[in-house]
């Protein structure tokens, strides 16, 4: 059984804006799934529809086998949402926010208190339980929203940019926490603009652009599509003989000098980084450290968007989808 | 959700709403008591003593039911409109919308909050009124029934106002320009028999007239309107507004995109 299945999801807002033209997604049970896309691509609309905050125009959604149209209540019970914006009552104490949320899912208050204590302790907010929401720091508010989404122990947790504006220390703590609950069996869908976050946490990925799914595969498969990777090498000592880099042995690598002791190297899939390192060492050039110039997923993400936006076949498909979706809207 | 879960969800909304207005009781419970006491002192004691009896009742006793009901109307309406609009404004309404709580329970929960506040304020104002007047309640059952139906009606109306509201101005327009004039012209301070025929007939269009008069009947035993007709109208308005509020919730108007 899939955790989430979306077929041909479409959304046209009342003002005529077509946000989704046909999103298709399948998320397996236990997955840590990345849903990526540029601003306005349709990620938040998709999440809004899945969580019941936005009405869909067309399409089918099932959550753990429960159809959204016929078993909405059961489908909603399976989902926990951490939205992009802070959406709790700013004047309520932290503990009440959690206990009330438990109540909305039908939990008795005693059980909601127990769960609230558990999650507030896990997310290091227990000391703040009697503080009103507006007095929390940004990072605490984010963690509060995660605790609130978990209070009914959902099978599917959806996080819409949960680490936006959060410092690196809290971000890493949140990553660890999310990885832990995923290991315990919670399926997670994550949208983020921090692509290193998606790359390090997620097993599978979908990319949405202009309201349609343009990529849907495993992270491993997607990253293998990357043809070239660019690395920055920091050398132990300044390069004395610059011409050395134009030597025949180095021509298979695209090397550019950044400054005296820094070089940039572009490697295609066939080239091995080991051979470059060996070659440099043999010529007495020692490497102090190295890093990827850009995040691999980021590089790929930009390529895919660019490719699809300049793909006439896709443009034709998009036009067709828009036409069909407006026909569906007209009928409904 | 099974019945127990639905009960827990409803209980949560009602407790949340109750705690909301109790937490700020100085703003929500105290002012109506003070305002009504001033009405009793000025209109009842000072001016009222110069006015002759109406339908055989002292002027002070005659205005008591209307003043109690006015407090109930204002508070039940105000509670729901401000609470639901604040939830919309802060987006905390999304906590409920993502949950499996059925729409009917969301409406009943918010309306219950308004009814509870209306009732609490109504009881306090009644206690204050008893200090200034000398009323023997004619029918407890009728008084309580109208009390409850009126609080429910205006709580639903407040909910509808909040659903349609797009700014804080929108939640003050209806109470200021519709509710207050209709309440004052609903026969709190006078019998419509005292008005010229045209104004008498026009007053019959005002639904608040039926509530005030049937409540007055329950409290002191006199009414300008047939009480059965008044009850049918009040129940009818409750049913119509409830249906409309459910329609808004089910369509997601004003709350879902």
Task: Describe what you observe in this structure.
The complex is a heterodimer of chains A (332) and B (257). Chain A contains eleven helices and 14 strands. Chain A is α/β, with parallel strands linked by helices. A six-stranded mixed β-sheet of chain A has the order 6-7-8-3-9-10, with helices on both faces. Chain A has a four-stranded antiparallel β-sheet with strand order 2-1-4-5. A four-stranded antiparallel β-sheet of chain A has the order 12-13-11-14, with helices on one face. In chain A, a hairpin with a 2-residue loop joins strand 9 (204-209) and strand 10 (212-218). Chain A is globular, with a radius of gyration of 24 Å. Chain A starts with a strand and ends with a helix. Mean pLDDT of chain A is 84; it is low at 321-332. Chain B starts with a helix and ends in a 6-residue tail after the last helix. By secondary structure, chain B is mainly α. Chain B has helices at 3-23, 25-28, 30-47, 59-90, 93-97, 103-132, 140-164, 170-184, 197-203, 207-220, 227-251. In chain B, helix 4 runs antiparallel to helix 6. Classes of the chains: A alpha/beta (332), B mainly alpha (257). The A-B interface holds A 13-14, 48, 51-55, 72-74, 76-77, 79, 81, 83, 85-90, 96-97, 99-109, 148 and B 1-2, 4-6, 8-9, 11-13, 15-16, 19, 86-87, 90-92, 94-102, 252, 256-257.
